[in-house]
Amino acid sequence: MSADGLRTAARRPRDGETVANTVRRLAGVQKGARGAPAYSRFVNRRLGRLLAAIAFHMGATPNGVTVVSALCTFSAIAMLALGSPTVLTGLAIGLLLVLGYALDSADGQLARLRGGGTPAGEWLDHMVDATKTATLHLGVLIGLHRSGVWDSDVVLLVPLAFAVVSVVLFFAMLLNEAMRSQHEAVTRAAGSGASASIVRSLVVAPTDYGVLCLVFLFWGIPELFLGLYGLLVIGTTAYLLLALPTWFREMRGLGR
């Protein structure tokens, strides 16, 4: 199925089309996977594809899916900040974050099913992403402070550092794509997903938001959670520090 073929799709399923048929149709017009980490590429995108197909058959809109995604994510952040760090709370937070992330993938795929997205829809999606990037780790900070499970306040510097690194990385990724597009260079979304390196997807796993979501399943086991969370902080920071010079050289080349 070509992208042009998908654009001709109506705003509701074709006669006799099942959810499974819609999933297969959508699978043929996925965005490229260049630079995408493993969970986002192999798990979240597929979950999003299924949710997009279900939403399509329900008559939902992409913006509606974005709103549901935001409700899941920000409910989890509120539980982090205001709830107690129990095993059940951790499971609820982790599952809400995983669902919110899958729906974040589904809204764009649903837009393609319906014939293409809109600037307003893209703006809304990025605003939700920016807000969750800025607030998720602050929720961790507040939750750790309120719970009192750690005697030292030094521990609170970990989510604070993660918040700074995550915001800078998110901004850099958006800025890189905008400048590539402005100078007609290849963007991460361009090309075939199959051509992207699987090894690279695994190497950059510490930067994967989906992996971070899974770590919150252990929120109710503070020692294990903070150990895994700390590894992600280190991995994401290392990736950012290594990537910045490469991106700068790339941007310098765009201007020539």
What's the SSE blueprint?
Elements (H helix, E strand, L loop, with lengths): L2 H5 L11 H9 L10 H21 L3 H21 L4 H27 L5 H29 L9 H26 L15 H6 L5 H7 L6 H33 L2
Quickly describe the structure.
This protein has 256 residues and is an all-alpha fold. It contains ten helices and no strands. The protein has one domain (3-254): Up-down Bundle (Four Helix Bundle (Hemerythrin (Met), subunit A)).
Q: How would you describe what is shown here?
A:
It is built from ten helices and no strands. The longest helix has 33 residues, at 222-254. The radius of gyration is 19 Å and the shape is globular. It has helices spanning 3-7, 19-27, 38-58, 62-82, 87-113, 119-147, 157-182, 198-203, 209-215, 222-254. It is mainly α and 256 residues long. It has a single domain (3-254), classed as CDP-alcohol phosphotransferase transmembrane (TM) domain (Four Helix Bundle (Hemerythrin (Met), subunit A), Up-down Bundle).
Notable traits:
single chain, 256 residues, mainly alpha, Four Helix Bundle (Hemerythrin (Met), subunit A), 72% helix, globular
